Amino acid sequence: MRADQKAKDAADGPGSARLFEAVERRILNEIVSEELKVGDPLPSEKELMEAFGVGRPAVREALSSLRIKGFLEVRRGERPVVSPPNTSPLQEFMSDFGRVLSLSEDGVYQLTEMRRLMESALAWEAASKATEQDISDLMRINEENASDIDAPEKFIAGDLRLHRKIFEINKNPLFEVFYKSFVAWQMPLRNDTSQNALEVTQMQHTAIVEQIAKRSPEGAYSMMNAHLYRTQSRQVEQARKRQFDKE
């Protein structure tokens, strides 16, 4: 190994976070500017080392980070290639971030507020975009859910199906990311499965579905907002009690 290469590798030790981040940023900039397009292979590690003036560890760390984030696809024995947009890393990050944020009262408030505002807007859009099949599906899911009101676990599963269907009506894969991340942090917070709580939820679900079926964006928005405001208030209060008990 050449002396200058040894110096580069030494510089790429534990304190070299900025080096690999700079390499990662430069490669990502080339993807964003379309100098590198989807399906294009990256230069070899040696070429990247020479182009960026860094050692092998910094290049490998940058490539690994870009792969984890979904920007590159790496196959054994081949150069990494630019991947098409992949929402899985974003979903995983948002799910983990939400679970950590939900450990505090403020975090629960922020998460439930975001959910309330987003899903209310999606209900508005669903009332405008839903096909006859979409409305039929919503009504069927809601009716099935009503029949499970005496079985909390089945009812909650049906509850999730109803909300997911409203996300799906909007046909935007990014909304699917938000839905799955909501499920990840919401489920541990959902501990009120009393008969009264489930009956109120079912009543509110029915009101939401009716407004979407009527093609009333304002009504769908209002009903979803009221439904999730109740959920938000209850979950924030639970988080407050949990935090108080810890203290």
Q: Which labels suit this protein?
A:
247 residues; mainly alpha; Arc Repressor Mutant, subunit A; Four Helix Bundle (Hemerythrin (Met), subunit A); 2 domains; elongated
Task: Explain this structure.
The protein is mainly alpha-helical and 247 residues long. 74% of the residues lie in helices and 2% in strands. The chain folds into 2 domains: 1-82, Winged helix-like DNA-binding domain superfamily/Winged helix DNA-binding domain (Arc Repressor Mutant, subunit A); 88-245, Up-down Bundle (Four Helix Bundle (Hemerythrin (Met), subunit A)), CATH 1.20.120.530. The chain is built from 11 helices and 2 strands; from the N terminus they run ααααββααααααα. A two-stranded antiparallel ribbon has the order 1-2. A hairpin with a 7-residue loop joins strand 1 and strand 2. The model is unreliable at 1-16 (pLDDT under 50).
Helix content range:
over 70%
CATH architecture of the largest domain: Up-down Bundle
Give, in order, the helices and strands: HHHHEEHHHHHHH
Task: Please tell me the total number of domains.
Answer: 2
Strand order within the widest sheet? Answer: 1-2
Indicate the structural class: mainly alpha
Low-confidence stretches: 1-16
CATH superfamily of the largest domain: GntR ligand-binding domain-like
Question: How many individual helices?
Answer: 11
CATH topology of the largest domain: Four Helix Bundle (Hemerythrin (Met), subunit A)
Largest sheet geometry: 2 strands, antiparallel
